[in-house]
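Two proteins were folded this term; both appear here.
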Amino acid sequence: MRHGKKFNHLGRQAGHRKAMLSNMACSLIEHKKINTTVAKAKALKKYVEPLITKSKTDSTHSRRVVFSYLKQKEAVTELFRDIAVKVADRPGGYTRILKTGFRLGDNAEMCMIELVDYNDNMLKETKSKSGSRRRRGSAKKATTETTAEVVEETKAEAAPENKTETKKEEGNEEEKKD
């Protein structure tokens, strides 16, 4: 019986599975996103996230440990040089799985796994969102009043500037007439 054994063997023997996950992790590090099945993506997520966490401390030991998993010098260099710097302040959750539908041949559920900090489209959307969506009650009214005060102040400040500009324009028109 397999009580409490949560590891997905992906229908492969241990050597094949380790090699496959190593190659997929190297491809993910190199290309920042890859298309695969959902089961493989979930297994890859468990495989690569500890390696990214390990890459935050750039020491000889951590490089050797990561190299023992990845087996590609270029991937290790890329991980420690570029990716570790970009995810330094992130406490975890370095990858994202986006489901893309089903494969035509065998109807397997497909997805795209990507590094979170490298998706420019998602980063732009999070920056452009306005405020929070909570219902607050009195706190919202206070911000509305403050906003109204700021608008009134800007109108009051802008009004004298407009008057001086109109006086200048009138002076210019009078000079043109002469």
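Next, the second protein.
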Amino acid sequence: MDLSSYAEYAVRLVNTSNPATGEEELTSVERMREVLPLHSQAVHAATAADLPVLREVRAGLREVFEQAAAGRQAAAVAALNTLLARHPVSPQVSGHDRRGPDGRPDWHIHLAEHADTPAAAYAAVACMGLAIQATALGLDRLGTCQASRCSGVFVDTSTNRSRRYCSDRCATRANVAAYRARKRRESTAGRGR
């Protein structure tokens, strides 16, 4: 299993709120299950008591992304290390009784299978996944969306380090807005001749 894929847990958790608009998606256990990774055992086992913990972890993760995006790498690392200390991983080798194509057990590593609470398990996986991606790709690959009124985050895995938006939706909206602004300027400049 590619442990760096667990960074998506961090991205998804942070993107459950938008401070720019006040939107909040962690309003209930049911809503949490809709917006966080479905394959997470922690999400399936979560209760209402886990929501405040996840919101607190989300704030810490958002700080990591914002510090990294602002070029303050030491502050981003300090924030991430604080989260890692609060939410340590508990790795476990698992095979789920599955067999690989060669008939041998499909052994792989899971993180935080024995955490005290579902929120602690999710937090540990998200923080460790983000730490793996940040150290493998570089902290400059952690970004915040450049679209107006969006505060989404992302891990830039593009080959040319060019990602600027958290989603295709934000990229499209920004491109359409830029196109319309250009057309308005051209129209205004054409009338002035």
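The beta strands are 17-18, 23-24, 92-94, 108-110, 142-144, 153-155. The chain has a mean pLDDT of 89. These notes refer to the second protein only.
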